[in-house]
Structures are given as C-alpha cells and as structure tokens.
Amino acid sequence: MLVPKLPSFFKRPVNQQFDYKPLYYDSVKEKQDKRAAEIGRHGASSFSGKINFSSSKARAVNRSNWRLLIIIMALFGLAYYIITL
After folding, report:
1. Taking the complete model, does pTM exceed 0.85, yes or no?
2. Per residue of the chain (85 residues), what is the pLDDT tens digit?
C-alpha cells in the first residue's frame, strides 16, 4: 500500500528500475546456492553462526596502539628539537 503524498509544485524524478536476469550460467554460484540450501535443510541450528576473532583483533589493536605511541613520541621529539633551536 502506498503512503499518501503531500501535494507539490515540482515533480521529483523517479529512478527507472529494471528487472534484468543475466543470461550466463555461473556454476560456482549454483554450487554455493545448492550447498546453502542443503545446510539450511539439515542442521543450521547446530551452528551458532558466531566466529570468535577476539585474539586477532586484540593483536591488531595492540599493534595499532604501539604505532600511534611511536608516532606521537616522534612528533614530540621533533617539536622539542624545533623549539630548542
């Protein structure tokens, strides 16, 4: 059901939508769709769907923090050198 619109003096352009279906056969996509349907039928409830990336994320955050600390120290050192000249 369409929502009633307020009257307007200007007509807004509406994007044209196409219903294009590609004409080529993609075997990889076909296999993926078949596998997804099979998993959905058999036991998707046994898979929690959550993968734990906490260790790699923590390592990346730690590396980023160290890099930031080194950059800040270099900038302070450069500022001190410029001021003492």
Report:
1. no
2. 667 777 778 887 888 888 887 778 888 989 999 998 888 777 655 555 566 677 888 888 999 999 999 999 999 999 999 999 8
Q: Measured between alpha carbons, how far is residue 32 from residues 4, 17, 27, 50, 57 in Å?
A: 42, 27, 9, 20, 28
- The residues, ordered by sequence, that sit 6+ positions from 39 with a Cβ below 8 Å of its Cβ are 47
What CA–CA distance (Å, rounded) separates 60 from 54?
10
The first and second tokens of residue 47, run together, are 């898979």
The Cα–Cα gap between 85 and 68 comes to 26
Angle (CA) 39 43 47, round 5° = 95
